[in-house]
Amino acid sequence: MSERTGTRGGLAADPGGGFWDALDAPERAALRNAGRTRSYQPRAPLCYQGDDSDHIIVIESGWAKVTCAGEDGRAVVLAVRGPGDLVCESAVLGRRERSATVQALDHVRALIVPATRFTAFLDAHPRAWRLVSGTFVRRLDDADRRLRAHVSAQGARRLAILLADLADLSARHAPPVGGGPIAIAPPLSQEELGSWMDASRETVARALSALRREGLVSTGWRRVTVEDPAGLRAFADSSEE
Predict the structure, then answer these.
(1) Distance separating alpha carbons of residues 45 and 234, to the nearest angstrom
(2) Which pLDDT tens digit goes with each residue over 8-47?
(3) Do the domains at 12-146 and 153-237 have one common CATH topology?
(4) Mind listing the pLDDT tens digit for each residue in 63-115?
(5) Mind spelling out the 3-state secondary structure of the chain?
(6) Pick the CATH number of 153-237 from 3.40.50.280, 3.90.1150.10, 1.10.10.10, 3.40.50.1820
(7) What is the pLDDT of residue 145?
(8) What confidence tens digit (pLDDT) does each residue in 155-186 have?
(9) Could you report the per-residue pLDDT of 140-160, keeping only the tens digit for each?
(10) Among 26, 117, 147, 234, which is 20 to 30 Å from 72 by CA?
(11) Beta bridge partners of 55
(12) What residue spans define the domains of the chain?
C-alpha cells in the first residue's frame, strides 16, 4: 500500500483509488496500530461466505476475487480487489454474516483489523466513515454499470467491456509508459473471466481470439495484455459485435 503523506481533503482527493490511499497519514497510522498483517497464498480464502463478521481486511499487496455461491453451489465471480482496497467490511458494519467469499488470486499481504477496533477507528476518524460510504457508492455504481453492459452486449464486446475496465484499474496501479500496452494485473483465468461475464470458458476463448485478431490484446496463461487500450475501449463502446 502507498505510504504517501499528503493530506486528503475529501472524497474526490484520490479518484478511483483504494480506501487506504484515500486516508491521510495519521489515519493510516491509527488503522495500522489497530490491526496486524497477514500473508495469504494463492487460492487461500481471506473470508468465507456465511461466516460471522469479526474483522475487516485492507489489502496491502496482491489481488483477490470476490465470489458468491448460488443455490446450485456454483461460485460466481462478482469483482476483484487489489492493493489499498477494503474488503469484508459490509458484513461487519451491517452486523450480519458475510455475503461473499474473498479468495487470493496471487500472493496477498493484508492488514487484518478486528471489527470492534475498526468501528472504534471510524468513530475516532469521522472522515473515514465518509470514505467507507464512498466505497459503497462506487461499488454499487460499478455493479450497475456492469449489469447494464451485461444486458446490452454479447460475446467479444462483453469481454472487451470487462477487459477495458480491468485495464483502467490496472493502469492506476502501474501506469503504462507513453500510453502503451497495459498488463491486466489480476491474474484471472478464462474460466474466471467467463464466470464474471456469465459466459462459458469456450465463449471467452472465442472472444479472446477475436480480440487478438483485431490486435487489441495478447494472452498467456492467466495473463491478458491490452495492446491497444484506446482501440479496446472504442470496441467496447461500439454497438456492433
Answers:
(1) 36
(2) 333 233 334 689 999 999 999 999 999 999 999 999 999 9
(3) no
(4) 999 999 877 778 899 999 999 999 987 766 666 678 889 999 999 999 999 98
(5) CCCCCCCCCCHHHCCCCCHHHHCCHHHHHHHHHHCEEEEECCCCEEECCCCCCCEEEEEEECCEEEEEECCCCCEEEEEEECCCCEECHHHHHHCCCCCCEEEECCCEEEEEEEHHHHHHHHHHCHHHHHHHHHHHHHHHHHHHHHHHHHHHCCHHHHHHHHHHHHHHHHHHHCCCHHHCCEECCCCCCHHHHHHHCCCCHHHHHHHHHHHHHCCCEEEECCEEEECCHHHHHHHHHCCCC
(6) 1.10.10.10
(7) 74
(8) 899 999 999 999 999 999 888 877 789 999 99
(9) 877 777 777 666 677 899 999
(10) 147
(11) 114
(12) 12-146, 153-237
Q: Which amino acid is at 22?
A: A
What is the pTM for the complete model shown?
Answer: 0.85
Single-letter amino acid, residue 141: D
Per-residue pLDDT, 241 = 47
